[in-house]
């Protein structure tokens, strides 16, 4: 099969022919139909989030089950599925209390007797246990969920990251109240989904913030009521627009300076949601007196703050019911061979989401 491989940071991905093993007892083999280009993968390309190399990147994927392991009973050949990075153990405290998205004992491929992806004597790693930039995937049973009948598979992969992370941060993580005010810093794929998640919650005012004003038309399409340019004065602008600050600020970029700005946009008793994937070891400053005196909250939101195996089918149904936008998020459909150009356009701010669609 063909796969996009990262061999060295800050270099283009290479399209290579590799071999994929059969499923172990607890694995599912999936023929990939679509795979979205997410900024999280780019963190590994840039070196901000190191991963073992060579590695097959990609995690926002959808496909059809081709084979299942001997212990897998919840999936069968032909099932339409979406993958997610939130594999889980099922027995730790977080899993047992309904928070398997933050499981600390995720299953790994390290204990497998043979490499899952290889060519000759060379073994390839799978990003997040998935490796979605390939014609097929081999995934632990806990990293897969079925989607409702009728869900278009060329966009279904978006549910596994951009939609789950963004909509979930608003609905499940922040639990945005009807009539409240919201600021969203960063209007890429995840940010657009935070916006539409806040709209689903009934927020009365949703302020989109980005350094690229070309994203504002799309932000309004997804539910933004106001748009302002990102920069050192954006917090002051938000406070002026809202008469004192927003109830919720979502930071969807992953930079210390925008995290600090998000905190400064809050009104008293406001909540800052940290959604963007920050570089390893990054830090941002929090004024202690301000936090105490204004009773502010800072909350992290990982993969939608909820179990993906229930959230993804729910969000898929919202799309099928016309209540959630997905088609508008896809700027272009590309082939695997065009992946480097797709990432160049993403980093230039020219696209909301590029989706690789595999020949089937």
Q: What structural category characterises the helix and strand content?
A: alpha/beta
Assigned CATH superfamily of the largest domain: Medium-chain alcohol dehydrogenases, catalytic domain
Helix content: 25-40%
Count of individual beta strands:
19
Portion in beta strands: 25-35%
CATH uppermost class of the largest domain: Alpha Beta
Average pLDDT, all residues: 94
Q: Radius of gyration, rounded?
A: 20 Å
Low-confidence stretches: none
- Major sheet characteristics: 7 strands, mixed
Question: What this model shows, in words?
Answer:
The protein has 360 residues and is of the alpha/beta class. It folds into two domains: 2-146 and 326-357, Alpha-Beta Complex (Quinone Oxidoreductase, Chain A, domain 1); 163-303, 3-Layer(aba) Sandwich (Rossmann fold), CATH 3.40.50.720. 27% of the residues lie in helices and 27% in strands. Strands 4, 6, 7, 10, 11, 18 and 19 form a seven-stranded mixed sheet that branches. The chain is globular. The chain starts with a strand and ends with a strand.
Short description:
By secondary structure, the chain is α/β, with parallel strands linked by helices. Helix content is 27%, strand content 27%. It folds into two domains: 2-146 and 326-357, Quinone Oxidoreductase, Chain A, domain 1 (Alpha-Beta Complex), CATH 3.90.180.10; 163-303, 3-Layer(aba) Sandwich (Rossmann fold).
């Amino acid at each position: 099969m063909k796969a996009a491989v990262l061999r060295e940071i800050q270099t283009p991905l290479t399209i290579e022919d590799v071999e994929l093993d059969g499923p172990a007892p607890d694995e599912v083999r999936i023929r990939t139909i679509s795979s979205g280009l997410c900024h999280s993968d780019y963190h590994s390309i840039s070196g901000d989030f190191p991963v073992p190399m060579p590695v097959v990147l990609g995690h926002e994927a959808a496909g059809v089950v081709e084979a299942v392991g001997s212990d897998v009973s919840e999936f069968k050949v032909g099932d339409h599925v979406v993958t997610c990075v939130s594999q889980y153990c099922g027995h730790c405290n977080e899993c047992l209390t309904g928070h398997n998205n933050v499981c600390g004992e995720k299953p790994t491929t390290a204990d497998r007797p043979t490499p899952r992806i290889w060519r000759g004597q060379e073994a390839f790693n799978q990003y997040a246990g998935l490796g979605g930039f390939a014609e097929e995937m081999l995934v632990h049973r806990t990293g897969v969920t079925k989607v409702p009948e009728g869900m278009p598979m060329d966009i279904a992969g978006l549910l596994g990251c951009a939609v789950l992370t963004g909509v979930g941060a608003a609905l499940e993580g922040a639990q945005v109240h009807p009539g409240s005010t919201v600021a969203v810093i960063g209007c890429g794929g995840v940010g657009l989904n935070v916006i539409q998640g806040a709209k689903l919650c009934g927020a009365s005012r949703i302020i989109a913030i980005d350094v690229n004003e070309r994203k504002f038309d799309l932000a309004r399409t997804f539910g933004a009521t106001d748009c302002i340019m990102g920069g050192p004065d954006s917090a002051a602008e938000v406070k002026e627009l809202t008469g004192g600050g927003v109830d919720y600020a979502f930071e969807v970029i992953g930079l210390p300076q925008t995290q600090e700005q998000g905190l400064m946009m809050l009104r008293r008793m406001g909540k800052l949601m940290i959604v963007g994937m920050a570089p390893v070891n990054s830090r941002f400053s929090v004024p202690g007196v301000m936090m105490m005196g204004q009773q502010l909250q800072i909350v992290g939101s990982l993969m939608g703050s909820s179990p993906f195996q229930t959230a993804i089918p729910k969000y898929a149904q919202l799309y099928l019911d016309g209540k959630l936008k997905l088609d508008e998020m896809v700027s272009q459909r590309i082939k695997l061979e065009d992946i480097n150009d797709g990432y160049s356009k993403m980093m230039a701010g020219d696209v909301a989401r590029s989706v690789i669609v595999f020949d089937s």
